[in-house]
Design brief:
Blueprint lengths: L1 H8 L19 H6 L12 H7 L9 H5 L11 H6 L1 H18 L4 H8 L8 H13 L11 H13 L9 H4 L3 H7 L1
Length: about 180
């Protein structure tokens, strides 16, 4: 949906100007790209960097950079849960904020070493390169505050993709109370 939004934003019609094959399983798109006649693929890391390092492709753009801050990761809880367990929500938000503080204050090498146990199949030098790309693209925000402009961008993308029939007011779905406290 984000890719199609970016195409439209740049004057291309995804239904007439190109062919998008969405039949390929998410984890197999890089392999399919190298063995087919496709001109482009959309990849998350570490697959994008792997394609480059193997000489099978080049990263030409970042969907995140081209789209603006789309909240790819957002956490949801029932209002009743938030009301009954605010300390759990605050602790969780504080932990995410500490993670953002860490990635925004440490080098790519330090971050790569820290996260390497979670990516055992990815060599440290490649992981460092991936983190550096994320830093250069300004992937990590400074805080966990879900801004209204990002919410509206997400709604616009969902609407254009035919996945959202009507918008919902930001204040009805989003609370920044815990994020604001976590920043302090």
């Amino acid at each position: 949906m984000v890719f199609e939004y970016i195409l439209k934003k740049n004057g291309l019609d995804p239904s007439t100007d190109l062919t998008i094959d969405q039949s390929i399983s998410f984890g197999l798109t890089a392999a399919a790209f190298t063995s087919s006649d496709a001109d482009y693929t959309i990849e998350f890391e570490p697959f994008a960097t792997t394609l480059e390092l193997e000489g099978n492709g080049s990263v030409v753009a970042s969907l995140g950079t081209e789209s603006g801050y789309v909240p790819y990761t957002a956490y949801s809880a029932r209002k009743s849960y938030i009301k009954q367990h605010p300390e759990v929500i605050q602790s969780f938000t504080n932990a995410i904020q500490r993670g953002l503080d860490y990635v925004n204050s440490h080098s790519s090498e330090e971050i790569a070493k820290t996260i390497s146990p979670q990516f055992k199949e990815t060599p440290l030098d490649k992981l460092t390169q991936i983190v550096e790309r994320y830093k250069a693209q300004d992937t990590w925000k400074e805080d966990t505050v879900f801004e209204e402009s990002s919410f509206e961008l997400l709604e616009r993308i969902l609407e254009e993709a035919g996945q959202l029939k009507e918008t919902v007011p930001y204040k009805e779905l989003v609370t920044t109370e815990f994020s604001t406290k976590a920043v302090k």
